[in-house]
Automatic annotation (TrEMBL):
Domain of life per record: Eukaryota
Transmembrane domains' residue ranges: 73-94, 100-118, 162-189, 196-217, 237-261, 273-294, 330-350, 362-379, 399-419, 426-445, 457-488, 811-836, 842-858, 865-884, 904-931, 938-959, 979-1003, 1015-1036, 1072-1091, 1103-1121, 1141-1161, 1200-1226
Name by which UniProt lists this protein: STAS domain-containing protein
Protein topology in the membrane: Multi-pass membrane protein
PROSITE patterns (UniProt xref): SLC26A, STAS
Keywords: Membrane, Transmembrane, Transmembrane helix
Species of origin: Gambusia affinis
Annotated Gene Ontology cellular component terms: membrane
Domain STAS: 512-705, 1254-1447
Amino acid sequence: MMRAGARDYVVARPLYSEDSFNEEHKKVYRHHKTVLDHVKQYFRCDAKRAKNAALSLLPIIGWMKIYRIKEWLVSDIVSGVSTGLVAVLQGLAYCLLASLPPWYGLFAAFFPIITYFFLGTSRHISVVLCLMIGSVVTRLIPDEGPAANITGFTGLTVDEQRVLVASSVTFLVGIMQLAMGVLQVGFVVMYLSDTLVSGFTTAAAIHILVSQLKFVLGLQVPGISGPLSIIYTLEIIFNKITSSNVCDIVISLVIMVAVFLVKELNDRYKSKLPVPIPIEVIMTVITCGVSYAFDFKSRYGIDVVGKIPLGYEPPVAPNLQVFQHTAMEAFPMAIVGFAVAFSVAKVYSIKHDYTIDGNQELIAFGVSNIFGASFKAFAASTALSRSAVQESTGGKTQIAGLLSAIIVMIVTLAIGYLLEPLPKSVLGAVVIINLKGMLMQFNEIPYLWRRDRPDCVVWMVTCGAATLLGLDLGLAVGLGVELICVVLRIQFPRCSVLANIEGTEIYKDRKDYICINEPEGVKIFRIPSPIFFANMDFFRNKLVEALGFNPLRVLKKRNKALSKIRKLLKKGDLQWTSKGFMNTTNNSLVDPLEDSDNEELDKPIDFKDLPIRIDWNAELPGNIVVPRVAIHSLVLDFAAVSFLDISGLKGLKTLLKELVRVEVEVYIVACDPYILEKLHNCCFFDEEVQPSMFFLTLHDAMLHILEKHPETTILTTVTVHHGSLSLRSRDKNNTDKDRIMMGRMSDFRLEALAKDSLAEDHEKIHRKHKALMEHVKEYLTSCDANRAKKAVVSVLPVIGWMRMYRVREWLLGDVVSGVSTGLVAIMQGLAFSLLASLPPSYGLYTAFFPMLTYFFFGTSRHISVGSFPVLSLMVGAVVTRLVPEDGPHANITDFEGLTQDQQRVLVASSVTFLMGIFQLAMGVLQVGFIVVYLSDTLVSGFTTAAAVHILVSQLKFVLGLSVPGINGPLSMIYTLEKIFVQITSTNICDLVMSIVIMAVVFIVKELNDRYRAKLPVPIPIEVIVTVIACGVSYGFNFEKRYDVEVVGTMVKGYEPPIVPSVQVFQESAAEAFPVAIVGFTVAFSVAKVYANKHDYPIDGNQELVAFGVSNMFGATFRSFAASTALSRTAVQESSGGKTQVAGLISAMMAMIVTVALGFLLEPLPRSVLGALVIVNLKGMLMQFREILYLWRRDKPECVVWVGTCLGAILLGLDFGLAVGLGIELLTVVFRTQFPRCSILANLPGTDLYRDQKDYPLVCEPKGVKIFRIPSPIFFANIEFFRNKLVEAVRVGFNPLRVLRKRNKALRKIKKLLQKRDPGITENGLEDLFWTATNDPEENTEVLELPADLKELPFQMNWSAELPSEFSVPTVNLHSLILDFSAVSFLDISAMKGLKMALKEFTRVDVDVYIVSCDALIMEKLHSCMFFDDEIRTSMFFPTLHDAMLDVLEKHQDNSTGSVVRKK
């Protein structure tokens, strides 16, 4: 497109900040619809919409009106017969996969097709049964052992029971699909990427292969379902291998070889064969005849199809109990069935140029499954092989599908008996040989590993999980890994420091180029991803690393220095003179370094009471040392930041304030208008963070810095024109006329460059990227004495901080803090043990053993380790599930000979030990970063739900009721029901005592908060009321007199250690993992707060190790899950605690009570403990107020909060956490999946391009479209991107459709030229076309190839008017510019989709330009061989204006005729 250094261009416009730009260019007011507006519009109805709705619900009306009987009917009949024969055979064969009698496969090949004929939008797919049904059938009705306890099975044979299960599951699948279709959520199929589907179907092929081995070998192998079922099945097969039936093996091998060879011939000669050879049907007929003639069943013991009843059976109603047992498996079946069908349908709809509707397809399959299930058919989807037969044999519409169903019906009603002698090994062999395509997908692994490793991980994990865990769990694992991969790509972007390319206004990564200019005192930092909860800390750390200093630490050092200077001035040791500060004493002025805990240290620096403003880069008085900041300006490039969530917004504001407070001017450039709008709506701006720091372009900000700091140079030719606009309020007093003023008109002469010419003119540095093995070798082999020493100190942090322990200054504070915290820890230990459904005395163990271990391994100096209510509640759920109060306990041999309390203690300690193992493993594997996935919003919703659970669980103690513990989904509802049933039995004494204690504790806690600055330590009200309640209860004998339940006998001293139960591990692994995650998340969040406040680092991985070891050690001595509590930690810090010596003393307090004073707590009413627990929930329950704030500021965040809270309340804390995490990851993907794409236009007189809808006066050159993609492009949004692109270029202009129309027209032209004299008359095309006729519709793939004009004797002008016989859409577009400035990554699916889209536009003579593409994306495109003869590197340009100038030069007739549009 452009030769290197071809020409220069000059830009002349004012320098703009966002404020000054908005003043000069007024925006168009655009009303944003509210949710209510969208709802009203959705439910608005008129005659036209009702008609469209009817046509969409019955697509048959649409395509039957255009049905061409003469052209299509014969093809449909041939296709229908061919497909019907295949359908009969596959119906019988695939029934074996579903563990059902073979003839039911004929039902599944008939009923769903009948319904789909009326409701489906695809004209070519052939409906076939789903392959996942068999695992459910064998789980509920195993080959060996009793069936599930379902009343509907009474009186039925095994086959009838299996048919009932299959039809009921199918009915449920249909309900789910129909519901999703009605709710218009067909887009969910986008989350199943090609990579995931490939790995999943490969695993399905392995399962199918293993399941058919028993038929091929003639063995009796029971069906096995569940995790590792494939391993157990193979074990049984290998144990029985010597009993294989030789006749079955020989028949299978012959069938497989014959079918394989003929299928290969079909593929090779498909263009010459009128229809594919139906080899499966031929071999089936032959085998039936041979088996019948030689009586294979009796003579060789071969298992045959057997009796096939003629006709259809009466409809059956589904079983509701089966619904309850199979809901978890039915949902992935519904998703997979629809995803596979929609993928196949999309292939043929694109090929044959018609549209399909994902939501209508869901409705069609839903109704088909519901209808089919009523007649004992089972889950319907489609198969690519059978759909290929239907399409390749000439099928044009679903008439072919209807005829195939009629063929199946004929077999079912009349000739099914002919298939009775068919050996099942033949069906197994046919199934196996048809797996070739799916098994060949293993070839994708090397390609994916070389091109895109995250995609390769998705493939392998999905395939491995689906193979080992089962298809349903494997799909869930694969989907989770896929979403995490998307989040990881966004979470850990490659941030870079930019520098100016000499002689240009272009800024690139300074590591990439040799000749660059990096102005002194200026840093340009690029963030190539959205900023959200999971990467805010990463972004902050990378920025601090780029700056070379931590602004918060510098700010605190400066405030400390100011505090010391004020003290010295006050004492008279320091005086201010005209020459500066002067010492008035000969002694050293520097006091011993204080560990100031003043929260004011992170406030803005205040010079009011000082005689002069301190120059922090000069030498400070009194030998005070403060880190110097060599940077005066920081530019943050937000071009690739496509969204900010609430966590990112808060973190960004905190960071900006820290930088501003250390006198670093911050400029944010190229910020998306929608992000700016959100910042205004969320009250982001204040006196420190102002809108004036936002600039339109990076070069505008740099020129502004240049005029403020004239020593800063940018090597561009700059001509300055004086102006009067002011950009930032702080510059108004600048009177230096020689400086370049903000807002002045600037001309700079630059070269118009393409990527190719930029690379030629400016040499890049070759950067070698380390391979994975190099990183592994470096990590494992680079060990020296220094690294070993650091490793020891990191594993035992106590070595580090104990060496700097200041006994005189810190010991007293630690002792006071330890005693105060110990008293609180004792009370909370007793109270929270009730949440864990354990005797209260075990709470004292949790206050001692974990803290003892954390003292040595923890990196936080302030958190108080012990019981935490949420963890206690989660452990209690496991305890009550395995050892319920009413009913038998779980079948665990380790429970033998133990009392109920001992069983519960064993369960709690075993779960805690397993939790510790998980935490320790995560710490060793260095995956502490996973805590970032639990955003503040999610944790808030989760802890609020936990507070509700805790509140409900303590009501029985407060009311004095006997309510058994209930766990599982809806457990809280059932608990409340039982409480309300027993409400009349409330113990008045318990109730009154609880109310009094809650009122007193609440009031005193409020006083503690209000007067905390004046109180030396908070009033320990919980301890006081506990002591009083113990005395009153003992004095008035509450237990016997008022039937009050008390704590009872306390264990004196410590019990011997115990070994955890491995059986409990197996029963509770799924619950222990979320307990480990939640425990660490809460502890790390609290630790981070106090680490930032007191200016010391904490290590997330070491914290995992510390809590892992603490929980394992504590569990050995019968303590339960330990974490930290903000309230208890606040007591430890506010009462003077400096280090974990305070924690050690608090543990000693718990030990003293356990060993010597525990008996004094025996008369304590349990209602007191319940009341203390409830009153401490205030903070968590007050989080309900966040809902309104989140709804107004960030609706996706509000959805996360509400979804997590409701999920945890209704489903339980473990499931609720999983639901919340899933919703949270989905919202991240959703924000990038549906970005706000826009069409840009030039603002007259500038080189700026903005959304054309935002400004009343814009310039759009004729024939040019500029399309901006404000997000990464990946599997979930590539279709959205392509649809938006087609919509943007012009309504109705689809490049693929235009290409096909042109190729069809060319074919007709060439045929006419061959029939007539090829000479062209003076009438030109008109004379040639007058005899043109409509040829039959062509559906060959050749129509998608580039238009071939070689054989034409004239130049084809597609823009000219063609004869009426040829309907070729006119393309009024000659250039398309894609703005990739916000595209931070591309995955394999996106790369394929992008390449396809680019080729489609190029083939219809549209020049495509891609601008501002990230260097790493360019590198990936090269490595993936993205470029070819059609897509070249010359279409890439560094800036949008460069591309536009190239367009205007190539189309000079449009350069002066730009369309100026006024609104």
